[in-house]
Design brief:
Number of helices: 0
Oligomer: single chain
Largest sheet: 3 strands, antiparallel
Helix content: under 10%
Shape: globular
Order of helices and strands: EEEEEE
Structural class: mainly beta
Distance between the termini: 29 Å
Radius of gyration: 12 Å
Number of strands: 6
Length: about 100
């Protein structure tokens, strides 16, 4: 995470080293980065979340993406999954490995 709010990634693509599928979304306004063992989640200043990396370990958030577009205040991570807290709705959204 650079000072200008952009993200640069490198390394093994299967473990989150390549963010080319979401590169344009990581070009600006990223506030925080969270990680599982093989995936990453970026919390942006507008309250949206962008994910990449191993789909089964949190890099694939397509099933909950509509819930991650706005209103997220914090993201929590474990070794294989993420949870996003939406304070406005007193709700948590989870994705990743359920095991």
């Amino acid at each position: 995470l650079k000072l200008d709010g952009s993200v640069v990634t490198w390394g093994d693509a299967g473990s989150g080293g390549s963010s080319e599928d979401v590169e344009s979304q990581l070009a600006e306004n990223v506030a925080h980065i969270y990680a599982t063992r093989k995936a990453f989640a970026a919390l942006k200043t507008d309250g949206s979340v962008v994910t990449w990396g191993d789909r089964l370990q949190g890099g694939g958030s397509s099933e909950v993406q509509t819930l991650l577009k706005t209103g997220v205040h914090h993201v929590y991570s474990t070794g294989r999954s993420f949870a996003a807290f939406q304070a406005d709705h007193y709700a948590a959204v989870t994705w990743g490995d359920e095991g």
